[in-house]
Recover the amino acids of this structure.
């Protein structure tokens, strides 16, 4: 039997990077401390804190609607059904995005955003109701419209 490589790898000691003397912070530590300081300053202002909490709530709701619609489509049509819904939703949002951007430029941004959020709430309720009573075509249509309205925010 010929000699074969047994897969044994030679392990060499890798020298560590030199450690700075005690009392001096490494550049990573300074960077982390600076970011924590920025976060503290942002959270200290109640207006900025409210904006962060609003965005966190919006992000949570957006991800929850994606999961709900994709799980519903998966239950009805398997992987293919979920994939088709995702592709149709994203292509529709891509085509709708320029009009959403136009509305933000044409009208007051705060009012355009409020209108977008109100439409999202109505369409999300319609999608949830359609899923609850098991009307797939209406649930899919509402899901696509919901993804389009998310591009307004």
């Amino acid at each position: 039997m010929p000699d074969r490589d047994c897969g044994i790898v030679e392990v060499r000691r890798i020298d560590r990077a030199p450690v700075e003397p005690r009392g001096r912070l490494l550049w990573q530590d300074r960077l982390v401390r600076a970011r924590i300081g920025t976060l503290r300053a942002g959270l200290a202002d109640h207006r900025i804190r409210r904006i962060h909490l609003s965005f966190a709530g919006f992000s949570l709701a957006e991800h929850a609607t994606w999961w709900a619609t994709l799980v519903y489509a998966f239950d009805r049509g398997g992987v293919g059904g979920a994939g088709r819904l995702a592709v149709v939703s994203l292509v529709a949002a891509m085509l709708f995005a320029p009009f959403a951007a136009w509305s933000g430029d044409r009208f007051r941004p705060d009012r355009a955003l409020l209108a977008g959020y109100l439409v999202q709430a109505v369409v999300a309720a319609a999608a949830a109701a359609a899923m609850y009573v098991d009307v797939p075509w209406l649930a899919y249509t509402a899901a696509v419209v919901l993804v389009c309205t998310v591009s307004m925010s």
About this structure: The CA atoms of residues 24 and 73 lie 56 Å apart. The chain has four helices and no strands. The two ends are 69 Å apart (CA to CA). The mean pLDDT is 83.
